[in-house]
Give the backbone structure.
Amino acid sequence: MLPTSLDKQLPEGVADLFFNDAARKRAVERTLAETFIRWGYSEIIPPMFEYYEALAAEAGPQLREEMYRFFDRDGRVLALRADFTIPIARIVGTKLFDRVMPLRFYAIGSVFRYAEPQAGMRREFTQAGIELIGANTAEGDAEAIALAMTALRALGLDDFRFTLGNAAYVQATLRDLALDAADLAALRETIRRKNAPALAQFLATRPLDAPQRDALAQLPMLWGNAEVLERAVCVNDAARAAVERLRAVVAQLTHLGLQDMVTLDLAEDRGMAYYTGILFEGFAQGLGFAVVSGGRYDNLIAHFGPPLPAVGFAIGVERVMMLQRARASIAPAVIAQAYDARVATARACGQVVEVDVMNRADDALRVYARVRGAREIWWRDGRVEKLG
């Protein structure tokens, strides 16, 4: 057995991509970029690493804990980007805040988190997403959701469903409870997981007024279609405003014909710590976790400059590839024994044709074509052989 050597291995959580996997990844990225551009979004490219202090801004304890940190030669703490939203907020807050609004940006690239690798998300993984900055409107929220749906469809993923909530509703409902940080975090997790017994136990031990008790007790059940907005108990003006914002977003999505792809969930409060308004996740059949997630973050840019509202989302490229792997192939349609006019014409029409440059014997070429997943062999004498 050969001895293991670190110079021949990869760290946990990263991967080499080649052949079809590399081609699929680039195809996904091209499709997403083209879709974002058609909606008026231009590319923005933040650096791979920045000062840790900047990237940790409003990131929340979990994301800060997952950042890859290191020192430069002057002893300053740097970090690899863990998402695109915070770097883009820095760029806008320091360099672009005086431009005509709204700004529309998209970004595609690697992000890094020191977390346990899971299906479709390693420690280095690829995000593709957009940020719509300067529009604090239901129309802006609906655009982000509609564009996320359009992007999934462009990738051939039609069987999806989105959940839509509003972080502001949960925040407003819990705002006046006299809880320390640990108890508040536990309560939010109980609500998010719809743990009715744990929530009942909490309510039994707290001196709450009737509206607070009713609002908390019903939160796990506030999911479904737009009807749930009529049942939401609002304990203050902020909660009422959050419900009305959801109502307006649903109206916009209905106008776009997308309401049937959305399930409301007013207990939803997951995601980045910087979310202040609507938040959403998109799930596709065949994958047990979200392929796209996003939300509104109206306070983040103010950390770097003048306050500006914003909303955005990110699509997990590796998760898209997991879904596509069983549905499509970028293997060559044809293996040609030699280059000829047929090859040139087929390639000009967009067909994938690979020419054998190894001068294989006939049987060896058949074996190779099947390994590559080709549908046909084009022989030098003009024959076409179909492969089963």
Q: What stands out?
A: The radius of gyration is 25 Å. The chain has a mean pLDDT of 92.
